[in-house]
Amino acid sequence: MKIIQQNEKSLVLKNSNVVSIIIGIGFAFVGAFIAYESSATNGFGGIETWLPIIFSLVGIAVVVFSRSKMFDFDKERGKFTIKKKGLFGTAANEYGFGDIAGIELSEQYRSETVQQGNVSVSRPELFENLSVAMKDGRRIGLDSGRAGFATIGGISVGNRGRQDLGQTMASFIGVPFNKISALGGKGSGLTGGGIINN
Length: 198
Fold this sequence. Notes:
About 30% of the residues lie in helices and about 45% in strands. By secondary structure, the protein is an alpha+beta fold. The strands form three sheets. Strands 1-2-3-4-5 form a five-stranded antiparallel sheet, with helices on one face. The protein has a five-stranded mixed sheet with strand order 11-6-7-8-12.
């Protein structure tokens, strides 16, 4: 997630789907190539042909269903708009600034098992979720992934930290920024329900 426009009246952030599209196209081409090579040497049929076709279809599905998201905070209108753009068009959800309780960054440790030689080692990794906390208790998910990274197309890449982005959004809207620590510490104490992944 990155800021693409910032001035005194507008703050616009974008989560791109470019990586998803590249991965999907790669899957489709590799699957098609393997299917072609397999059918040329073994004829059509059998798992050697069907598996690559399924691989290609998964790649095509990733491209077709990938979406980019734009988050537009407009001070003049007092509105927060989420625009989702994909192959099948654009959808938008709009919320008033008055409905926003704050911006929230929650941290959670997750265990990841890695192989070190002949030994499996479990190590904790810190994951973050940046969301808009609504006064009715809903959370609107903006960005999530490993701490210190941003997620683009489901893949974590280095970027401006979620905490910096959250503080920038909160300051722009004029609402509190709340960081909920993985160790149980809380900031301003925003409470409420689950996260909506828009």
